[in-house]
Write a structure and sequence with these properties.
It comes from Podospora pseudoanserina. Pfam families: DUF6546. By secondary structure, the chain is α/β, with parallel strands linked by helices. Helix 9 links the parallel strand 5 and strand 6. It is globular and about 75 Å long. The protein starts with 12 loop residues before the first helix and ends in a 5-residue tail after the last strand. The C terminus is likely disordered.
Length: 506
């Protein structure tokens, strides 16, 4: 006699799959243990469970056995290194940790897209003064920072900490002397197609030669997302970016690299505290530290050359757009470039409008050599300031026309020569005369420092079309800026800056 199925088993297979897929999307629940219920559950649950793996030092030894039969399910591996867990964080200890994972991945075959993320957490991150600093998976973030949380909810009662003591912690936090190197006989890793180093890695974990060698080990690399921090010392804000230039040049022209996103991160409160400490100790402050976003011209020049074979390039606070465009030659053709996003220090209310229009016109002239360009965004942002000049090509033959827009916290009149240069781009791109829109009334953002507390808030309000950084990194910047401003009283005039941050009494 046939037993009549009831409950779950009475549902058609399609309904069961829909229910399991919906449950597996819940980030707050873990259903990995349910994979043992039956084969149908195992197929659905393991596909979700193994798509993204986080590998720590404790789990590194089991990585090979755990993934041996499930490599085809894995699309993303995040190697999260806590230097405190490594023990004494020497060059060899860090190399051994990273190389162990790369050696295992070198045995894998290339199977479509595969993302590798490396993050190194320095011991000083966990100091009470920095408990608000955010770390986490690239897939987990919220759309808006939690405005209901206050610094008092996140730590013990605030204490006052002298700036020179805080500088000592900054030095440990951002300038660990660890360097990771890879020998010449290290095997290549063909499975990796995307490399990600997010802003939550604040220490300098790899040497220039090491980074270039790492890129050489990834022959099928198609994307790089790199978010280095600026040095707190008197060096240029994009010193860390220099280590990428040589390796990126080889990866671009030898490995068919298509997408590069570089975001030179910074924190204006840390900069303010650093300058106050230098003034107190009567240490000269270089011009690169007076202006946090002063970029090195050679970086812009180098990336102009690197950009030619790319499909997407975003370069934020690492090079100035004016240097990029001045390097471009008339003989250059960007045959694949569809999206370009650059920051410029010229985009500020205290700059001469003529100079700003000069750069925007130059950008339009260079864009004529980019036949597939869909979007170009030139932007800038910091506390209380946000602006973007945007060109968008027409999206279809019958609908929207190509257009340029200006969106900022202050007005700027686009001169006719700028409009003419970009109209030529639209005509050449779509081969249609007279179909070009210019926003004559620029959109003014009526926001001050209360709404735009950081460059992260500027990005949010500008509604950038291009991907300039990872969404979770943007969330972290906006979240941390609320703690720094709400929880820190930075003495801008006092010779010895006092911070109202949680920590030990000094």
């Amino acid at each position: 006699m046939e037993t009549k199925r009831t409950g779950w088993w009475s549902c058609p297979q399609e309904i069961q799959d829909m229910i399991l897929n919906e449950v597996s999307r819940d980030r707050n629940s873990s259903i990995a243990h349910c994979a043992a219920v039956c084969r149908s559950w195992q197929q659905v649950i393991e596909k979700k469970t193994f798509a993204r793996l986080t590998v720590t030092l404790k789990r590194l030894g089991d990585f090979s056995s755990m993934t041996k039969k499930r490599r085809h399910l894995i699309k993303n591996v995040w190697l999260s290194i806590d230097c405190a867990a490594v023990g004494r964080p020497t060059d060899f200890a860090l190399y051994k940790t990273i190389s162990s994972l790369l050696l295992e991945l070198s045995k894998w075959e290339a199977r479509g897209e595969f993302h590798l993320e490396i993050s190194v957490r320095w011991a000083a991150d966990s100091h009470q003064c920095f408990q608000y600093l955010q770390t986490g998976s690239d897939s987990h973030h919220r759309e808006e920072p939690d405005r209901t949380v206050s610094p008092a909810d996140h730590s013990e009662p605030a204490r006052r900490l002298h700036s020179h003591c805080l500088m000592h912690l900054f030095a440990r936090l951002y300038h660990a002397s660890i360097r990771c190197l890879f020998p010449a006989d290290f095997p290549s890793v063909p499975a990796v197609t995307s490399l990600l180093v997010r802003r939550q890695t604040k220490c300098e974990w790899i040497s220039r030669e090491g980074f270039n060698r790492l890129l050489d080990l990834l022959p099928n690399l198609r994307q790089i997302h790199y978010e280095p921090w600026r040095s707190l010392e008197g060096r240029n804000s994009v010193r860390n970016t220099r280590i990428t230039v040589e390796g990126l040049h080889r990866a671009t022209f030898c490995h068919n690299l298509a997408k590069v996103v570089v975001f030179g991160d910074f924190n204006e409160d840390f900069d303010e505290c650093w300058r106050a400490d230098r003034r107190w100790h009567r240490v000269p402050i270089s011009s690169s530290r007076t202006n946090p976003r002063m970029a090195s011209p050679e970086i812009g020049q180098a990336f102009a050359q690197i950009s030619r074979p790319l499909v997407h390039l975003s370069l934020s606070f690492a090079a100035d757009a004016s240097d990029f465009f001045e390097t471009c030659q008339r003989s250059w053709i960007w045959t694949r470039l569809t999206s370009l996003a650059l920051t410029s220090n010229l985009l500020a209310p205290n700059k001469d409008p003529k100079i700003v229009n000069d750069m925007l016109e130059k950008a339009g002239i260079v864009a004529l050599q980019m036949p597939k360009l869909d979007v170009m965004e030139l932007w800038n942002g910091r506390r209380g300031l946000a602006c973007v000049f945007r060109y968008q090509a027409s999206r279809d033959r019958a609908g929207h026309n190509a257009k340029i827009t200006w969106r900022s916290t202050w007005p700027l009149e686009l001169e006719p020569r700028v409009c003419k240069a970009w109209a030529a781009v639209a005509v050449k791109r779509d081969k249609r005369e007279g179909e070009f829109d210019v926003v004559k009334d620029p959109e003014i953002l009526n926001f001050g420092e209360d709404e735009i507390r950081s460059h992260g808030d500027a990005i949010h309000h500008l509604q950038l079309v291009s991907e300039v950084m990872r969404p979770v990194s943007l969330w972290q910047i906006r979240y941390e800026s609320r703690f720094l401003i709400d929880g820190a009283s930075i003495g801008r005039e006092a010779p010895c800056c006092l911070l109202n941050l949680p920590g030990r009494m000094v």
